[in-house]
Amino acid sequence: MVRVPAAALHMTHRIRTALRAPVRRRRNPAAETGLGRRPRPWSRAAGLVAVVVLGAWLGLLVVGDVRVPVGPMNTTMTLRPSLTGGTKINLSPLGALQFDSHVAPVRLDVNVDQLDPDRAQALVDHPERLSGLQDEVARDVGHGTLDLAARSGVAVVTGATALGLLVYRRPRRALAAGGLALALLAASGGTAYATWNPDSVLEPRFSGLLSSAPSLVGNARSIVTEFDVYQKELARLVTNVTKLYDATSTLPAYAPDPTTIRVLHVSDIHLNPASWKIIASLVKQYKVDVIVDSGDTMDHGTAAENGFLDPIEDLGAPYVWVRGNHDSLATQRYLERMKNVRVLDDGRAVTVAGLRFAGIGDPQFTPDRSTKPGAEASQELAGARLASALRDQRAAGTPVDIAIAHEPSAAREVDGEVPLVLAGHIHHQKTEVMRYGTRLRVEGSTGGSGLRAVEDEHPDPIQASILYVDRDTRRLQAWDAIELGGLGLTTAEVSRHLPKENQPGAASTPSTPQGTRESTPQSPAPNSPAPSGTRDP
């Protein structure tokens, strides 16, 4: 139910009081001699207009929207009172586009809610439909507009009539208010039609993240003048996203020993909304106990991006997070308010799913990908602070099992203080045992390098890892490196890796020399294509 604004209720009360209040009669010599003035008709007309406008506005607020499928998208269309008119398209969490499409006292709002996987999949299964996609979209918008116009007409007439009956308590005046509201809506629609400017798409106004990332929406003029090219690009994007959904729904799963704790390591999502689908699928199929995100979940760290984080609450596992150089302190505070999220910073330690984690946020905030003087030194200092916190935890009898930092240069500073440290930042997977025995596991980009993944012809792969940790010793037993072949490719590769001390014939203690990288894949999971490289039989 839509809440009626307090200001609207107050205005209704004042109008009703003014029109219904009794008039005190006083002796007036002029009136007694026939020289008095009659009540001014314009004051009653002004009151009626106020009732009509307010009632129509309330009607639109309550029932004036329709849900319309447009191509493979689900949208919500709404008419809103406006002094300038125009059209506004909301693309959460990216921002909005506004067009001066018409001049009228009503604005058309279009909210793009989500991609419908079934309708998008139908386009992939039947490529011949792509050639008529623009006609289908035009028909959908046309049907939605007619439905919206009819619903809005009913809404404004009902609102104005109901408010007129409340104020005047006379059916005739209430019906007059409803009729006047319908006439105003028809006049507004006629004005919008007469001033309709289809070329307004050439000069859109961007807000939110779209204002700083024009490459995501392309050049508006080229979209209009080269619509065939734009149509093919749109079809490619729909196809890529749909194939990604299809790939993640068929990922092979591994059934680990029940004595292991399963940790899903993700990193560098960079505002790719498809990542939540991937993570949720992995959590379910691998029965993940805890998710670790080593940062750069966002791209710019602005408040406009915060809504992108809301799906974390529904992933089905606790979420341990450290700040990356694309994540702001505002992002960190937003995540701290979520019940299933554990934000780690300044060496703070928490126990989740039987494992003790400690981490530190990235000391740099560079959403524009700039490099600040002294960046490497600041990373080493942050790593030293984390190492000091790890020593304090061990001295207190609560040693940390897994440390987390965003950049590998910071993670290297904890060598010898913890068995395993996780990092990200470099957008490709890497594992090595450092000089004093700490294993460094660097995750690739679980967002395929972010929103840019849907633009490039050959996007980066999407990567994540499942870490299997023994419940008793709390040491890493094995890990599965998972890689999707980027948007537009349906290949899903899952390879098993064992620490050298766990391989057949290995010594009971690690003896890996300084700088040696571990990359010994075992046989792939069932139904997974074999990756290149040597595998043990």
TrEMBL record:
Residue span, Calcineurin-like phosphoesterase domain: 261-428
Matches recorded under InterPro entries: Calcineurin-like_PHP, Metallo-depent_PP-like, Metallophosphoesterase_sf
Keywords from the named record: Hydrolase, Membrane, Metal-binding, Transmembrane, Transmembrane helix
Residue ranges crossing the lipid bilayer per the database entry: 45-64, 148-168, 175-196
SUPFAM superfamilies assigned to the protein according to its UniProt record, in alphabetical order: Metallo-dependent phosphatases
A GO biological-process term: lipid A biosynthetic process
Positions of region (Disordered): 497-537
Keyword Hydrolase: yes
Transit peptide listed as a keyword: no
Record GO cellular component, one term: membrane
Gene Ontology MF: a single term: UDP-2,3-diacylglucosamine hydrolase activity
PANTHER family, sorted: PHOSPHODIESTERASE YAEI, TRANSMEMBRANE PROTEIN WITH METALLOPHOSPHOESTERASE DOMAIN-RELATED
Protein's UniProt name: Membrane protein
